[in-house]
Amino acid sequence: MEIFAASDADITAEVRAADIRATFSPPTPAQPPRRWKGEPIRLSGVTKSFGARPVLRRLDLDVPAGQFLAVVGRSGGGKTTLMRLICGLDSATSGDVFVGEARVAGLMPQVRLLFQDARLAPWQRVIGNVGIARGPAWREQAHAALQDVGLADRGRDWPSVLSGGQRQRVALARALVSRPGVLLLDEPFGALDALTRAEMHRLTERIWTEHGFTVVLITHDVAEAVALADRVVVLRQGEIALDVAVDLLRPRPEADGAEAADLRRRILAAV
Amino acid sequence: MEIFAASDADITAEVRAADIRATFSPPTPAQPPRRWKGEPIRLSGVTKSFGARPVLRRLDLDVPAGQFLAVVGRSGGGKTTLMRLICGLDSATSGDVFVGEARVAGLMPQVRLLFQDARLAPWQRVIGNVGIARGPAWREQAHAALQDVGLADRGRDWPSVLSGGQRQRVALARALVSRPGVLLLDEPFGALDALTRAEMHRLTERIWTEHGFTVVLITHDVAEAVALADRVVVLRQGEIALDVAVDLLRPRPEADGAEAADLRRRILAAV
Amino acid sequence: APALAQEKVVRIGYQKYGTLILLKNKGLLESRLKPLGYSVKWAEFPAGPQLLEALNAGAIDFGNTGEAPPIFAQAAGAPLVYVGFEPAAPQGEAILVPKDSPLKTVADLKGKTVALNKGSNVHYLLVKALEKAGVAYADIKTAFLTPADARAAFERGSVDAWAIWDPFQAAAEQTIAARPLADGTGIVSNYQFYFSTRAFADQAPQVVDAVLAGVAEIGAWVKGNPKAAAAEFSPLIGIPAPILEVALARQQYDVKPITPEVAAAQQQVADAFLALGLIPKPIRIADALRAPKS
Amino acid sequence: MSPTAQSESLALGAVPSVARQEAAEAGLDAGLLGRVRLAALGRALLPWALPLGVLALWQAAASLGFLSSRVLPAPGDVALAFWRTLKDGTLLTNISVSTGRALTGLAIGGGIGFALGVLNGVWRPAETALDSTLQMLRNVPHLAIIPLVILWFGIGEEAKIFLVAVGVAFPIYLNTFHGIRTVDRGLVEMARVYGLSSTALFWRIVLPGALPSVLVGLRYALGIMWLTLIVAETISSTEGIGYMTMNAREFLQTDVVVLGVLAYALLGKLADSLTRAIEQRALAWNPAYQPGARGVA
Amino acid sequence: MSPTAQSESLALGAVPSVARQEAAEAGLDAGLLGRVRLAALGRALLPWALPLGVLALWQAAASLGFLSSRVLPAPGDVALAFWRTLKDGTLLTNISVSTGRALTGLAIGGGIGFALGVLNGVWRPAETALDSTLQMLRNVPHLAIIPLVILWFGIGEEAKIFLVAVGVAFPIYLNTFHGIRTVDRGLVEMARVYGLSSTALFWRIVLPGALPSVLVGLRYALGIMWLTLIVAETISSTEGIGYMTMNAREFLQTDVVVLGVLAYALLGKLADSLTRAIEQRALAWNPAYQPGARGVA
Ligand SMILES: Nc1ncnc2c1ncn2[C@@H]1O[C@H](COP(=O)(O)OP(=O)(O)OP(=O)(O)O)[C@@H](O)[C@H]1O
Ligand SMILES: Nc1ncnc2c1ncn2[C@@H]1O[C@H](COP(=O)(O)OP(=O)(O)OP(=O)(O)O)[C@@H](O)[C@H]1O
Ligand SMILES: [Mg+2]
Ligand SMILES: [Mg+2]
């Protein structure tokens, strides 16, 4: 019976390799980022329509491994759709999506997606939701991740009693704890206040720097895009209206210089 | 059988009165805002705990009729809880909440709440969700509201195919179409891009000006609070950390003068 | 151990009311069969049709019922053979009416509703009684009900009369003073029959005979000690002893191999059922008799 | 397992669009198109493969003498019985009489079960007072209470319809109750905050939310409806499919018994297809109920 | 209706905290506290009010001679029969024999129904191939296929257990299937994106999501389990509660019949309470299943 016979073998092998690597290389935060673990993403001529409604039109996009890409665009502009194509939840009407070497057809094991809605399993406690994949030592990792997002004391709660922002942070913890090759973040900070948001920015940036995966971040906050990303893409009417590199030194303080302000203005104009 | 015997009589009377009023007073947008329709909100010594966790501590708050109040605070700070107390979905552990003349005990018919999550009924089409209360001429009103939020062509769709921001706008349309005495908005613009957000600001402001209901708006965007509200309250650890009036002339352009910037800085510091 | 493993079994089906259950209870059979290398496995059935259903499926080797079920079984091709009968007991079935019923004779049944078990011995009784009274079968209404249901319908007054056999007959007579319009006397025979499968009767005739001998022994005992038998029977089936005594007294206990007269009477029943459309094709009782002993 | 194969058996709701797309591409090629049509035909026939296979095996076993025809007649014999009873009209009479009883019982019992499910689902005090009793009643065997039923309703149609009604009431009750209890509370809150009257709340939120579960109850009840008849029609019947079957069993007419069983099976299938049609219409908003939908995994 | 009264009967999940708060306030006053305890006792007894009321009416009707004791014996007679069968041990033997059969059948049939529900729920091809057949089989009346069952399993325990297994399999199948099909697809997507293997997906997402519905199926099956025995124990039995009841019915021992019916009712209630306990434990995350929860409206 092959009902549930996903490519488990591959996944286990992956996990085991990562495990061994983790065991033999002691964590050294001072090291330069291990970018090699991230995987490139490539879209070529991707069109996606729902019925007669075209959402993405012949999109071409190259994201090098380890890049932090921010995607900005109007509501209903196809950003979530783009994410679903990259992780293989949907398939393009035409055109090809590649992650790493492989053409995307079906779910990609190295890609993780933080959904726009939190999608916490109501029957798993908060800690169980963070460590949903139950890798080795998941409990400690999940607990550490909860601490990172400021919810260390909520691990034993049911998700249903959390506030909106707390749920979003649990989802963020779950995404960050998974340490993937490609991380897709669909508005991960939308329900957070300014201070919490800044903390989460620093957290995301730190883990990305340590781990070196490729990140695609959807955000409506242009300042956020400029503060976090290596490159910002504006999606308008299914096409790329602007594709701009953010060449600012890290760490970047919240309010940057004139260069950042100029960038923000350019991006806002393109949305 | 009294199972479903809410205070329908009262509601119907209300609706009928409103109806008659609407029939006899032609819509005149040039008129000064009919503030008298809004109702005041008063909290006195309100404490709310979940189990051993106190969320609101002896809160006192007076919102005059027709005021546009913004509430800002950290994630998990009890903002949503406050809203639920005002509209009667939850009851305070101690203290009293008043809306208009009445002490809140059970649902208040004159209060409408836009929930933090969109809460669209999946089995109602978009237009059916907007006109969920099915007042007289609901279809026309719902259609107009959808047009206002930029989703005129999506009325016949199921909510499940909408993007995150589109759902939020449907929920906003539903809240605005209901023309209540008190409107509670729990992060209504969180999933919207900057441009759409500005449009929705203008829409909300316009309908509030026309209709004169009391508004409590929860937002994480301090600029938004300053741009929209008459008054901003910062909720910190269950208490009011800042309560400041925004005495800026309307209409207020996005980027205001130094006064607004100063206000923003003060509020941010208090969060 | 090998001897035990080779011990053969005769599977006997019985009903709650009849001689076989007493035979089982008294434990008379086991000693008779032991010398033949057989042990007994008893199986209880709620009624004759179910018993023959099991016989048909090869789940039992021996059993007894009234006169109606074997006719349907044979019509269905069941491999049963008649191996014995108890003498006629025409009083053991009757057509009852409530005690204050205006009906006085069978002829009064015209246009009335009679409750009965479809295709049972009382079905035959009703046909024959009507025939004798000169009432066409089509002129009465029938309500086909099992005894328990019929009793409820009878007491409620949903039916005017009830064709029923013992011990229900005796119970109705004694507890609600139901009045018989007619019993089987002079109309039908009401035999009880013993059956085996063709294969078993051929393969182990001595066992069949031994069981019949056991039946005869217990029959003789019941006949001699009706009170004791009723007392012993009563808790087994939950019918008060006084009622049982009446019912037992109306039975005959003298098991005999099938005689040509009995076979002919049974053939009449079969033909009557054919005429009623209860069986789809004619059957010959003679085909289901035990081969004469050589 | 290749990624493509994986998407075939494991992918989610999204995949139908892949299938559609593939079909569209295939449309360019006439040969492929033919193959696609053939595949669709295969999909339509697949549900019947198992029953027909069993039928074939059965006929084979009967022909080769593995099965005693006394106990399980050959399909040919059953077909003959079918033809016979069809010709003399008894089969259709029996089915139509039973259908009448079944539907009347369903209307009454289903209505009561639904009403009780709603009542207990929306109103806790009612649940406290009634649910226990209903759970006890549910467990009372029909066969045992027939004398009581006769006492109450006589031996006419009422008794039979009563039994059917009792039989169908409980699955509908249980599933309605469950469906209502698990309606999304967030939506109920929303509806009340938006001033929906209790009636409106029921029709616009509670009922649609409970509907999938109610339909499961209906589906089960449609089976029970026929099954109860086999008990009900032992009460002074001369017509009806339950009567036909049990009467034939009494008289060991196995061909008619099997015919009856097959009739039951087909009536059950019919009722089930009906429920599915209702589901597809009434739950059009729910992707899980649409024809193109796949399993969850 | 005043707002307060409204909140009593109509308010949502939130209201238990009101109740708790009221209780706490009441706690300050000893008299009130007593009243609160009394109210709690009342709530615990309320479910039994209706059955006990019926019992009282029944006794009254019997005492006043409205009921023929031959058709429906007085409660006193039933109590006597209870005492009699309890003393001679037959009641307990019958119940324990039946319980053994019931649980064995439940384990087998429930297991198969669950497995098929899961299989067809997660894998569309299986559904296409099997569901139709199952819907047909579901509709085959037990009473009619007893000859076949005897052919396959003889007249021993196997036949009875088989019938119970068949009876319980279908409600569990239907509800498992429905539960799995309506699991939140968003969560399934999430789980797959987070690399859960199919087994993990099943245990962590699909099964918990389907559990409420599976438990409804179990609840129904626990009733069917007992009910089937009344048919199964007509196959050559001398023990069992179904045998006891039907045998008594055969011989018009109405007191024993009613005793049997009552035993059925209580066993059903017991089984139901068990399922509720399971629900409250297994669905602790779901506010709709907690004891304090109110109806939706
Ligand atoms: N399954 C679907 N069926 C039909 N239309 C869909 C479907 N999914 C998305 N759409 C439509 O595609 C368009 C793009 O949706 P998408 O979710 O990608 O937007 P988005 O850029 O993420 O917007 P937001 O910022 O509001 O989340 C929307 O108009 C949406 O209604
Ligand atoms: N039903 C409940 N049971 C227990 N705790 C709860 C419940 N509802 C809310 N809480 C807790 O109360 C606190 C305040 O929640 P609330 O939803 O009011 O926050 P909030 O200010 O709206 O936050 P956010 O901005 O993240 O939405 C949180 O810590 C939350 O976990
Ligand atoms: Mg989106
Ligand atoms: Mg909130």
UniProtKB/TrEMBL annotation, chains A, B:
Residues 41-262 form the ABC transporter domain. One of its GO terms (molecular function) is hydrolase activity. Keywords: ATP-binding, Cell membrane, Hydrolase, Membrane, Nucleotide-binding, Translocase, Transport. Gene3D superfamilies: P-loop containing nucleotide triphosphate hydrolases. Its EC number is 3.6.3.-. Pfam families: ABC_tran. PANTHER family: ALIPHATIC SULFONATES IMPORT ATP-BINDING PROTEIN SSUB (PTHR42788:SF17), TAURINE IMPORT ATP-BINDING PROTEIN-RELATED (PTHR42788). Belongs to the ABC transporter superfamily. This is Sulfonate transport system ATP-binding protein.
UniProtKB/TrEMBL annotation, chains D, E:
Keywords: Cell membrane, Membrane, Transmembrane, Transmembrane helix, Transport. The chain crosses the membrane at residues 45-67, 102-123, 135-155, 161-180, 201-231, 251-271. It is found in: Cell membrane. Residues 91-275 form the ABC transmembrane type-1 domain. Its main location: membrane. Gene3D superfamilies: MetI-like. SUPFAM superfamilies: MetI-like. It is a multi-pass membrane protein. The keyword Transmembrane applies. The keyword Cell membrane applies. Belongs to the binding-protein-dependent transport system permease family. This is Sulfonate transport system permease protein. It comes from Xanthobacter agilis.
